[in-house]
Amino acid sequence: MTNGCRVTDPKDSPGSTQAEVNTDEVSIARVYDFCLGGKDNFAVDRAAAQAMMEVVPETPLLAQVNRCFLRQAVRYLAGEAGIDQIIDIGSGLPTAGNVHEIAQEKNPDARVVYVDNDPVVLAHARALLATDANTTVISADLREPDVIFGHPETRRLIDTSRPFAILLGGILMHLEDEEDPEGIAANLRDRLPAGGHLLVSNTCDTGEPRAAELARVFAENGMGTRCFRTWDEQIRYFDGLELVEPGLVPNNEWRPAGDVPDPDNPAHALHIGGLGRKVR
Ligand SMILES: C[S@@+](CC[C@H](N)C(=O)[O-])C[C@H]1O[C@@H](n2cnc3c(N)ncnc32)[C@H](O)[C@@H]1O
């Protein structure tokens, strides 16, 4: 994937949250923002989203319902499961119902570390989080868990000896098989103490031809990899964990709160999510 921008790190430039953006290059985070109805995207991002919508017109619906799943899972984590520390890897641009806002509605002391490798996410999130001492954003890559867990901000906010949650919403699908998504999921699971949780959501290969077509359009429009893996492949991300009910299911079926648009659309089968708990 290409991030398409360069950021003046506000830490190096006090008072500034400006990103120098290359508006000619597509960014997954900005395409996703467009699909969610956001304004932080450019013509090149909208054109890429449009190309996907020609294959699967429900592309924005799938993004929106992925957020419904994420919100419901975070409500569960911060409420019923008593989780007060979350690492959200591949967090994307700030949007309505950010993870820290949902978690802090349930528990005002909840701590959240956002992680993304797109520098524009860092700039926007820093601006949003400037006044929240319990929330931070770091620039790091999913493929380097040691960097994420060794980062001073992660160490400041996350006590890894106590239960915490790792969110992998719509990100493992951006790794090629050679990048070992299963190994990375296993590495992250190993870091969880008993009571810790792992959330995963991804596009799913349901056998319908549009899946392969969409993966092709994604790559051809400068967005890199978007793998459609089967349910059987993705359930392995939860090896050794106990699945929270209802398990690994289409996003619209995970404890829906009544906010799922077009709930009976068959395209929902193309995006699945689940939450696993480490028992010991
Ligand atoms: C589809 S968005 C998902 C956003 C959010 N997690 C959600 O589920 O609504 C994927 C995000 O993952 C980020 N991303 C992709 N590959 C990454 C990597 N290797 N390391 C860190 N972030 C990555 C992208 O920049 C983008 O913001």
Automatic annotation (TrEMBL):
It comes from the Bacteria. CDD domains: AdoMet_MTases. The keyword Transport does not apply. One of its GO terms (molecular function) is methyltransferase activity. Keywords: Methyltransferase, Transferase. One of its GO terms (biological process) is methylation. This is SAM-dependent methyltransferase.
